[in-house]
Amino acid sequence: MQVGILGSGDVARVLGAGFIATGHTVRLGSRTPDSEPLVAWKKKVGPSGSTGSFAAAAEYGELVLLCTHGVDTPAVIQLAGPRHFDGKVLIDVTNPLNQTPEGPVLTVGFSDSAGEGVQRLLPKAKVVKAFNTVGSLHMFRPQFPGGPPDMFYCGNDAEAKRQVASILTSFGWNPIDVGGIEGARLLEPMCILWVTCGIRLGSWDIAFKLLRK
Ligand SMILES: NC(=O)c1ccc[n+]([C@@H]2O[C@H](COP(=O)([O-])OP(=O)(O)OC[C@H]3O[C@@H](n4cnc5c(N)ncnc54)[C@H](OP(=O)(O)O)[C@@H]3O)[C@@H](O)[C@H]2O)c1
């Protein structure tokens, strides 16, 4: 499958390499597609990886991922061209954060979410929120002594969620569906919980898991 990933940061590069490792081809989108980190990424992943503008990546993707700075989503979607998302599954990995001296704070919540905002901006896309509750280091094939950690995801389209659950499984996660896209109201604050735990435990080698019997 052709995967278009909007973003050039750690998240985009890790997930892009993950899709390539699982047999897909990937185009990363950026305002500066020939930047040094993206040239290095292309060298690392080989011919299955390419880079282009946000629009080129969105157009390329049969599946698209939004992996850009959370508060700039409207600008990114405008640059990408909203029509390039029509009918497609869009995995929203973003967290709507502002950095403050006290740490990251959410700019939206708790009666709305960035995930819902993306779905409103792109009503013809099938938005699924996923991958936003863990650090980029562990997004692909997380290795923890307790087995596969859980990845919570949500979205309005059942078939889109089935596809994303299958991707999550192939990436080494146990997927947990938390309902419609309004579930992003729960998942986005979880990124702050993840950061807070990381700081207090002094480790970024952490991921969430529900215990069940
Ligand atoms: N880092 C993590 O471990 C982690 C974990 C979970 C979720 N997330 C979320 O995933 C997303 C990506 O995180 P990241 O750390 O990889 O990267 P980031 O530094 O949050 O974002 C970098 C990307 O945002 C784009 N961007 C920044 N300002 C922009 C603007 N004014 N207009 C258009 N595009 C702009 C950049 O575009 P250019 O390429 O053109 O510079 C770049 O592609 C964020 O929403 C973050 O909250 C991050």
Report on this model:
By secondary structure, the protein is of the alpha/beta class. It has one domain (2-201): NAD(P)-binding Rossmann-like Domain (Rossmann fold, 3-Layer(aba) Sandwich), CATH 3.40.50.720. 36% of the residues lie in helices and 21% in strands. It has helices spanning 10-21, 36-45, 54-60, 73-80, 114-121, 158-170, 184-201; strands spanning 2-6, 25-29, 49-52, 63-66, 89-92, 97-100, 103-106, 126-129, 150-155, 174-177. An eight-stranded mixed sheet has the order 3-2-1-4-5-8-9-10, sandwiched between helices. α1 (10-21) links the parallel β1 (2-6) and β2. α3 packs across α4. The chain is globular and about 40 Å long. NADP nicotinamide-adenine-dinucleotide phosphate binds at residues 7-12, 30-32, 67-70, 72, 75-76, 93-95, 97, 132, 135-136, 191.
Task: Give the low-pLDDT segments.
Answer: none
Radius of gyration: 16 Å
Sheet having the most strands: 8 strands, mixed
CATH class: Alpha Beta
- The CATH homologous superfamily is termed NAD(P)-binding Rossmann-like Domain
Report the portion of residues in β strands: 15-25%
Ligands in the model, by name, code or SMILES, are:
NADP nicotinamide-adenine-dinucleotide phosphate
CATH topology: the name is Rossmann fold
Based on Cα principal axes, name the global outline.
globular
Q: Order of strands across the widest beta sheet?
A: 3-2-1-4-5-8-9-10
- Supply the helix-strand structural class: alpha/beta
Whole-number tally of structural domains: 1
Number of DSSP-assigned strands: 10
**What value does the average pLDDT take?**
98
